[in-house]
Amino acid sequence: MRSDPADHELIAPGKLQTVVQLLAEEPGKWLPIAGGTDIMVQYAAGKLPARKLVSIWNLPELRTIEISPDEITIGAGCTYTQLREHDLIASEFPMLASAARWTGGIANQNRGTLGGNIVNASPAADSLPALLAYEAELILVSTRGERRVPYLGFHTDYKKMNLAPDELIRAAALQRKFSGYLHYARKVGARSAQAISKVSIAALGRLRGYQGLDAVGDMIDEVRVAVGSVAPIPLRLAEVERIVTGKSIDPELVESARNAAAAAIQPIDDIRSTARYRAAVTGNLVAEFLQQLRDYGKTI
Amino acid sequence: MTEEHIIGTSVPRKEGRDKVTGAARYVDDMTLPGMLYGATVRSRFPRGIIKKISFDPQFTWSEFVIVTARDIPGKNCIALIGDDQPCLADGKVSHPEEPILLLAHANPHLLRKAVDAVTIEYELLPAIFTMEASERREHIIWGTDNTFKTFLISKGDVDRVWSKADYIVDGEYTTGAQEQLYIENNGVIAAFDLEQGITVWGSLQCPYYVHKALMALCGLKEDKVRVVQMETGGAFGGKEDYPSIIAGHAALLAVKSRSPVKIIYDRTEDMTATTKRHPSRTRHRTAVSKDGKILGGEIDFTIDGGAYATLSSVVLSRGTIHAGGPYYWPNIRIRGKAVATNMPPHGAFRGFGAPQSLFAMERHMDRIAQTVGLSPIEIRRRNFLKPGQTTTTEQTIREDIDLGKLLDRALELSDYPAKKAKFAQENQTGPIKKGIGLATFLHGAGFTGSGERYLASVVGVEGCADGSVRVLVSSTEFGQGTNTVLCQIAAEALNLPYDDVRIAQPDTNQVPNSGPTVASRTAMVVGNLVRSAAVGIKQTLIASGMLGDAYSPEEFRAACKNHIAEHGKLCSTARYDPPPGVFWDDEKYRGEAYATFAWAAYVAEVEVDLSTYIATVKDFVALQEVGKVLHPILAKGQIIGGVAQGIGFALYEKVVWQNGRMQNGQMTNYIMPTSADLPEIRVFFEELGNVHGAYGAKGIGELPMDGPAPAIVNAIEDALGARFDSIPLLPEDIFETISADGVR
Amino acid sequence: MTVPSGRQGKCEFTFTVNGRRETVRAYPMERLLDVLRHELNLNGTKEGCGEGECGSCSVLMNGELANSCLIPALQASGAEITTIEGLAGESQLSVLQSAFLECGGAQCGICTPGMILSARHLLNKNANPTTDEIREALSGNLCRCTGYAQIVEAVAQAARHRSAE
Whole-prediction pTM value? Predict the structure, then answer.
């Protein structure tokens, strides 16, 4: 253990209001800590610069999951276990449920939170591509009130985001409009469990006329494709989406999609993998998504 | 001969209850009054001269115990085989993480900060990090030529075979470093007083190795050094020689401070500073006839020993002797070489050179098969050693082993022929490519050649005042079942219930030197001595008239108590006696290298997903002939655990090096398999007996490490049709190879 | 020596450990693992990696499996904690502990406390897990000795015995 507990202050006000007050009074001085599955690792390695921490673990205001006919609002303090085990998330937002299942082991799923995953903003964070694909909105809270921002664009650069020093993420809101879509997600890591992802993808797709009784064909109505671990932030592959929308899925289209994906990402060589591998696998997964979308159309 | 009633049954693990209740005491569970914590200041650089050591004036250094090379009372070396490795660097450093000075303090957090508050200035020297750079002698970093050791095995007349060959098959195969990754990090507590000398409690395999090292380091006689093994959370060779270093450090701090000192490494320190499996490079050139018979060959086996010699000569020895595999070589020349680099010294890890050279041999057999146009099965069948034939060291195979039949059984258990055909069919479509591969191999148990003779192991068995029996050995338990098996053997030999036999905690004040717990020798060699010594106390009781030839456990207990009441003690020792007719020539490296070999045939089934290039093992058959299965559950556990490490060696475990330092020294970044990564591993045994082993047992601890990697890579080649000659074989490597080949 | 900002001093924490109410003085950022081992002398919970990867430090906190090396003492305040020491009865081992012994689930034993708690957590949630479910549930507990097979067997055996009760 390479840190001294005596050097760090940790308080637990127990109410969201109090925490938010504290952040307003001393912005940038207090690091919120939820489940600690990232912060405590840095701490143990002697690499936690923050000296003052405020616990937001288990704040009731942050652990609710609210359901309305159009929307689900997931508290930022919800753990991966909560996401995994929630019936509606599993059925309507399966990529978020699978991201939760693929994060760490059971013990870490019991403590890691959705908000923590977003704010820690590792480029390899597991739940972020799904949030992008599902076009989540974040509800941010401060003493100045609440504001709602699209998750797309929240991250601006490596570990930089549109979060003011006095703000906390209170919840993520997802629109319940993705039934009938193909939900395709994969995580590529060094082993089957407990792996930091080398490449991850979360994609949604729908073919034209799927609700009609006529034969569907393989023309794409809409897609959303999000990838992780291949840039400083998780990416929506807007160019890939643009190229394929309204087109038939054939080998040429798949090839163009691959190339557009390769052009959009900025993978690196690091301790876990190589840029070339990441680029190749991203292309393969985009291709696999489109192939599955074409086959999905055939089954309807 | 009486029927065995304990040998061959799965009796409860002797210390099992403590392990499942959390009561088992590992070294970090122990504290002593007035205990300080110790830490090590280490080199940041691979090679250099130490110019200046400065201490940050913000710390009150008088509160700390500080030890440098100057404080060493005896010899500044880690006594093992040679004396080249200093205990603390004195003026120069030869590898990253080399220990330079030691600190101790009562507050472990303050201690940690103090380590970072010592600044060392170096004059850097050029360093080398590869075997090739070492061989080129760009810089001489050790001795006169960077070479720790060489061996030459020569049989027949290799130079004459090339002209007779229908095929000459070349191959080069490499294996990377592998971290033992025992889940309990290295740790030790040392205490010193003028009366008793030094006492050390530690997580270790070989109490007497540590004992010898501390005597030399501290200039103490043997009765002034005591080493006690605590419950040890995994070792696999990583705690064979390394504990002498950490124990030496704690001892020096204890001597200087006159307080007990505890040193426990954290995971990063353990990974970056301690030993790993030797990286290797093997070059094969083989002369083969058109009907697939090996006529002869040359094998060049080179290992990277790191900065100091430590155990490299012995690892080299085993790797060199195993390099020819389970095949008949009428002519062969094997050159083994261990070279120096500026990395932390590499060391023992289960298999000890054999997994490296056998990986090459088994990959090369598949290469030969392809060249000649035979199947991997047929090429092996035509070249297997048969009883009466000699190995590469001209050891005659005297037992009735039929490797062809063993292979047949493995093929049947794995459904190899049907699967190979099915996969070839299925692989024509889809991104999932399946393959099946095999490896056949041998592993010699016990110390090589005259090693057991030099060890001259001694074992004791004593009767206790309560009528129970106690086994006295320095052989340690670290999960593999030492306590259980040795008690089983004693109980069987005495015809007593298993519960009537205990085993002493290995404490050099209490137990004789039964040799190190390495080389798969414990059940086989030490077990045989335990048997002798047990029979010894029985004979003593019978001879003294206190016991009849046949007796009940109650009668034995009573006789034991009576004997002790009358004579004070009841103890018998047994000393290793080299079996007659076993002859080894250390000069020519020829003769009976091992008392016996265990034999195996492993089959691996893999899937490679071409969208991610990830290879996973889907089924695994491990079939081995092991003499006698002393304890079915323990034996199966050893094989499965070893296969799991072999799967890691092949597909997951990569040490990322930069300037001689391991960069991925965290469990997050050094990847070992989880329960979700491994298939069912199906284990089968055959038993031919072994005249040299207790109740016919052969050593099996290391055997399962040798086969998985080549079987898996053979399977991947089967799946993809591409060559892979290097492990670890990561998805990135598979991707690079097949995208170069144009396969998408 | 300069004192870094943020010094807070030790506080009193109360929690229930293995059914007993315990009060300790510790820094709020002391790891629960260290509190258990050093303040409460419960050494069955082990440190294998300090990064939440190996699971040797697993405990049950309010019935949920968690890595105690990643929990600050303050966040465990008021919680119900079960460690390996809390599983065996007065004279009898739990069904899981017996199964581990019978099946060879413990070799060196260092991963065993965490592994048993992880298994206990699984069986509390899923009384009849399949082999795949057992493997997935234990994938956060690393074992270097066994290759997991005999651990999985032990958990399956324990599940059968518990449902027979």
Answer: 0.98
